[in-house]
Write a structure and sequence with these properties.
54% helix, two-stranded antiparallel sheet, extended, mainly alpha, single chain
């Protein structure tokens, strides 16, 4: 009985993790469906889309003290932002 209780608790915890890590999509028929995400899926977020946002995206890292953020600032300013802003103009 105790073993079964532990299994049920484990299954409930797994279900909670799945619910936290998944999201709902609603198709045009109004049906909810869970997407099947590939193994190793990484969710990305857009931080800039307009020319103005691209021109200023590196500013938040300009006074960084952490080495990775300093490196990101240099790559943004010297490589990525010039290419993207040229294409958007």
């Amino acid at each position: 009985e105790e073993q079964q209780s532990k299994e049920e608790k484990s299954n409930e915890e797994e279900a909670q993790v799945v619910n936290v890590n998944s999201f709902h999509l609603e198709d045009d028929r109004g049906l909810d469906e869970q997407p099947v995400l590939p193994e190793g899926f990484i969710e990305w977020e857009t931080i800039c889309a307009t020319l103005y946002e691209w021109e200023h995206v590196a500013e938040r890292f300009e006074k960084a003290t952490y080495y990775a953020e300093k490196a990101l600032f240099k790559v943004l300013v010297n490589v990525i932002v010039p290419v993207v802003t040229e294409e958007l103009r």
